[in-house]
């Protein structure tokens, strides 16, 4: 009799073990077993519950359309599952991330606020840039850091046209001898906060504010609080004629380090035992402040996609850091293409489906195992009863 119950108990323990494994896999923010400061650890599709077929389909679509995508990395549950380099770029080749730079600037602003260098996002930008000769200064006195972060400063700026068009403000900025003065010399097209207008110049003002507030270069501040803390192995950040790091672009990174930055945000600003940037800031920065369309919102230099519960750092020509908290995923794309022809939302759908279907498959296997275990248990008990009778 005791032998029978002991056997049943072992079967039940096995079932509980399977159930616990399933629970741990589907937990949205599991306890981290390591941090990739030195290097990423790898896991298979099966180990993290990703449907490999969906990821293969995504790469087939990239190949069929001949997209100039240089690398794709997918981090799931803290492990690097996909790392593919599709062109001449390698894991050791720095890649320009263009406007992904803006999301780094946002994070540095959050850090400067936490350290008391900046009072809040509501502080006026002229508190830090008042030394610059600003035409029509009265019209610009109410522009705040929040306005720059959300691209609602009201400054006249034309960037959504060809770079080679003489009217392009970005091109005029690059050709000017003092970028901060050029940006602040622009007319006011609207009241601050009234309208959203994509403006890399405003992002550069944020970099100048970081330097004036902290007393060190934006690069040094970033190196201290992000690059070194997360173990970035190589990077480069170009500057304006006054040696201010370009806040709107020109950061160069390795794809693995792009993934580390996304992973920092995924973990609410924590890295190991250190709070690199406050959880409150991560929440605020990645929350949609401006509704552009039903599918697209804008936060503090982050693009927010509420329908897939994700937020993105986006750069020209297909540079992407995509954070999907619900699925514990960070996806990286580095590319050399015309961004307007790149259906990145469809690729996020592939990744999300791979996660959802992977869990479903694992759950099905777990259920089959449980049913099989119960069946074996029942057969053994019936067999023993018949044997005694």
Describe this structure in words.
The chain is α+β, with helices and mostly antiparallel strands. The chain folds into two domains: 2-30 and 357-388; 45-350, 3-Layer(aba) Sandwich (Beta-lactamase), CATH 3.40.710. It is built from 14 helices and 13 strands. The strands form three sheets. An eight-stranded antiparallel β-sheet has the order 2-1-13-12-11-10-9-8, with helices on both faces. Strands 3-5-4 form a three-stranded antiparallel β-sheet. Helix 3 (52-64) packs antiparallel against helix 14 (344-388). The longest helix has 45 residues, at 344-388. The radius of gyration is 25 Å and the shape is globular. It starts with a helix and ends with a helix. Residues 1-29 and 360-383 have low confidence and may be disordered.
What is this entry, summarized?
This protein is α+β, with helices and mostly antiparallel strands and 389 residues long. It has helices at residues 2-26, 45-48, 52-64, 101-114, 126-129, 137-140, 145-149, 169-175, 179-184, 200-214, 218-230, 255-266, 279-285, 344-388; strands at residues 69-76, 79-85, 95-96, 235-237, 251-253, 270-271, 274-275, 290-291, 297-298, 303-305, 310-315, 319-324, 329-335.
So what's the CATH class of the largest domain?
Alpha Beta
Cα radius of gyration in angstroms = 25 Å
Percent helix, as a range, is 40-55%
- Output the helix-strand order: HHHEEEHHHHHHHHEEHEEHEEEEEEH
Q: What sort of overall outline do the alpha carbons produce when their principal axes are compared?
A: globular
CATH architecture of the largest domain: 3-Layer(aba) Sandwich
CATH superfamily of the largest domain: DD-peptidase/beta-lactamase superfamily
Measured between the Cα atoms of the first and last residue, the distance is 14 Å
- Kindly give the count of domains: 2
The CATH topology of the largest domain corresponds to Beta-lactamase
Look at the structure and give the mean pLDDT. Answer: 88
How many distinct helices? 14
What is the β-strand count? Answer: 13
Largest sheet: 8 strands, antiparallel
């Amino acid at each position: 009799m005791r032998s029978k119950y002991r056997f049943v108990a072992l079967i039940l323990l096995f079932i509980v073990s399977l159930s616990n494994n399933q629970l741990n896999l589907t937990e949205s923010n599991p306890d981290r077993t390591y941090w990739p400061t030195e290097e990423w650890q790898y896991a298979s599709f099966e180990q993290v519950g990703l449907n490999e077929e969906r990821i293969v389909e995504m790469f087939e679509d990239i190949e069929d359309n001949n997209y100039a995508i240089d690398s794709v990395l997918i981090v799931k549950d803290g492990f690097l599952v996909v790392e593919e380099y599709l062109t001449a770029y390698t894991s050791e080749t720095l890649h320009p991330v263009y406007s992904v730079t803006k999301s780094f600037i946002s994070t540095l602003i959050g850090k400067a606020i936490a350290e008391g260098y900046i009072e809040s996002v509501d502080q006026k930008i002229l508190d830090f840039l008042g030394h610059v000769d600003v035409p029509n200064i009265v019209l610009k006195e109410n522009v705040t850091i929040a306005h720059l972060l959300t691209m609602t400063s009201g400054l006249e700026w034309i960037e959504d046209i060809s770079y080679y068009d003489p009217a392009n403000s970005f091109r005029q900025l690059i050709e000017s001898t003092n970028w901060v003065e050029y940006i602040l010399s622009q007319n006011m097209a609207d009241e601050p906060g009234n309208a959203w207008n994509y403006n890399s110049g405003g992002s550069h003002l944020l970099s100048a504010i970081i330097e004036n507030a902290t007393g060190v270069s934006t690069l040094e501040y970033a190196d201290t609080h992000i690059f070194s803390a997360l173990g970035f192995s190589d990077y480069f950040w170009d500057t304006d004629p006054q040696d201010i790091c370009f806040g709107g672009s020109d950061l160069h990174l390795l794809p693995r380090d792009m993934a580390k930055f996304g992973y920092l945000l995924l973990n609410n600003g924590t890295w190991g035992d250190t709070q690199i940037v406050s959880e409150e800031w991560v929440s605020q920065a990645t929350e949609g402040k401006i509704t552009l369309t039903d599918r697209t919102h804008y936060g503090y230099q982050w693009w927010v996609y509420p329908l897939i519960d994700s937020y993105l750092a986006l750069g020209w020509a297909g540079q992407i850091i995509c954070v999907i908290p619900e699925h514990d995923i960070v996806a990286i794309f580095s590319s050399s293409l015309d961004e307007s022809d790149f259906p990145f939302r469809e690729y996020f759908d592939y990744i999300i489906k791979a996660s959802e279907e992977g869990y479903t498959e694992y759950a099905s296997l777990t259920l089959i195992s449980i049913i099989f275990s119960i069946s074996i248990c029942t057969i053994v008990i019936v067999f023993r009863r018949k044997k005694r009778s």
